[in-house]
Amino acid sequence: MTDYLGVINSLIKGDYISPSSKEKISIPIEEIKIVKSIIDLEFKFSNKLFNKKNLILAGNNSYKAFGDKVESSLKNNNINYDLKILNNYTSSLEFARKLADVVKDYENIIAIGSGSLIDICKFIASSNNQKLIVFCSSLTAAATTSTVSLTNNGIKSSLNSHIPEAIIIDLDNLKKAPPRLLRSALGDVLCRSTCQIDWLTSHFLLKTKYDETPFELQYDDESFLLHNSNKILIGDYDALAALSRMTLLNGIAAIIIGSTHAGSMGEHLISHYIDMFMGDDHPGTLHGEQVGVATLLVSRIQNQIINNSNILEFKNIDISKKKFQNLFSNDLSSKMYEQFKMKYFDSEKLNRINFYLKQNWENHRSILKKHLLPTEKIKNALENCGALTNNEDLKISNKFYNEAIENSFLLRDRFSYLDIAHYTETIKNYQFME
Q: For residue 266, which of 243, 291, 285, 288 has the smallest C-alpha distance?
C-alpha cells in the first residue's frame, strides 16, 4: 500500500530533526494514515478498542459520505461499536458539555466528521478521559491540534483539549468531497508565507519567540500545491495527499510550538472579524475561503512594505480604550484592549522601535525576503483550483471588508503587517472603493 505520510512518518517515529534548531521533534499521536482506501486496512489502534465500549459520533452529512466505509473497516478490524448520528449540533461549549454527559459511559469515541464535529469530540474525550479516533470526512487542521474552538456566551473561545490517538484520511473519500470543501482547504493552508512573515517580524520587533520548524515541514508540499493545485479537483492522489499533509501539519505546528503563530496571523484576524461582526449578513462562507482571500490581502501588504521600503519608520497611532468601547461590546472591549496593549507602541516605545528599525531594518528585510512569496503566485494557485480570491467572491461588500481591514488588527495581541500598515499610515492603500 502506498505511503502518503511523507515527513509525518518521521514525526510519529520521533526521529525528525529540525534543520534550523537541530532538535529532534516528535508528536503525541500514535497513528496517522493517509491512504487511497481504508477498506482492508489494519489499524494499530484496534487492540485498544477490542472488547471495549466504543461509540461512533458522526454528523449527518459526514456519515452519509463516509459512514458505511468506516463501519466496514471497523468490522474488518473486529471492533464493536454503538452509533450516534448528530442531525443537529452547534459548536458551543454548552452543547459539547451536554453531549459529553450523555456519552460519558463509553471508553472510546470514534469521530466521523470535520472541523466543528471534531472539536466537539475532542472536548468530549478530554472531559471524559476517553480515547479518541478521528476519521476525517473532509480536511481540517482541527484533527491534529491540542485545542478546540467553541462558542461560550456568543464569544469564540480556545480551550485545551484531547489530542486524538489516531487520525485517518481516505483519499478516495476526499475525491468525492464537494469541490468547495477542497478549495477551502487549499485556501486555509496557503497562508504559510503570510504567517511566517508576520511571526518572524513580530520576533524581530517584539521579541516574540519564533521557531522555523513548522514551516520547514511544509515547504515541499506547499511548493507542490503552488504548481499543481489544478490537480486537486481531478482527484490526483499526490495532490490530495499533499493537501492532506499540509492541513495536518498546520495543526501539528501548534503541538510543536505550543501556540498557533505558525498558522494564524494577520489573515486569520480578518477572517475572525468577519465571523464576529457580520452577524445575520454573514454570507455563509467557509473558514478556508475567508482565509484564502485574506491571505492575498496580507501578502500584498507584506510584499509592498518589504520589497519597497528601504527605510521603515512608524508613526504614532492613537488607540484608546474608548475606541474599543465604541467598536466592541462592553463585555469584550476591556479584555480586548488589555490584549492589544501588549503589542501597542505608545510614544516611548515608538521612539525605541524607530531607533531599532533604523539600525536593523535592512538586515531583517533581507531575511524576510527569503520567506516571502509573490502574491500572484498564491493567487494563481487558488485560481487554478477555482477557489475564491476577493471579497466580491465571498459576497462581502467593499464597505464591510474595508471595515475588517481597518479594525481586525485590534482583535488580539498578534502583531502582523496589518499593524505595520497602520503604523506606516498606509492601511487605506489596501482598501476598496465603496
A: 291
What are the DSSP calls for 207-247, one per residue? Answer: ------HHHHTTHHHHHHHHHHGGGTTTT-HHHHHHHHHHH
User: CA dist 393 to 297, 329, 383, 429, Å?
Assistant: 14, 29, 12, 21
pTM of structure: 0.94
Above 80 in pLDDT, residue 2?
A: no
Per-residue pLDDT tens for 407-423? 999 998 999 999 999 99
Q: Using one digit for the tens of pLDDT, what is the confidence trace for 52-82?
A: 999 999 999 999 999 999 999 999 999 999 9
- Answer for the pair 257, 214: CB distance below 8 angstroms, yes or no: yes
Name the CATH code of domain 179-209+259-430 (choices 3.90.550.10, 3.30.70.20, 1.20.1090.10, 3.40.50.720).
1.20.1090.10
Helices and strands in the chain, H and E counts: 20, 10
Q: Which residues pair with 287 in a beta bridge?
A: none
CB 38 within 8 A of CB 159: no
Confidence of residue 154 (pLDDT cuts 50, 70, 90): low
C-alpha cell at 17: 530533526
Torsion angle, alpha carbons of 65, 67, 72, 78, to 10: 150
- How many whole angstroms from its chain centre is CA 73? 29
CATH of 7-176, one of 3.10.129.10, 3.40.50.1970, 3.90.1170.10, 3.90.79.10: 3.40.50.1970
Q: Provide the pLDDT confidence category of residue 158 given band limits of 50, 70 and 90.
A: confident
Quote the DSSP letter at residue 65.
I
Residue matched to cell numbers 501548534? 254
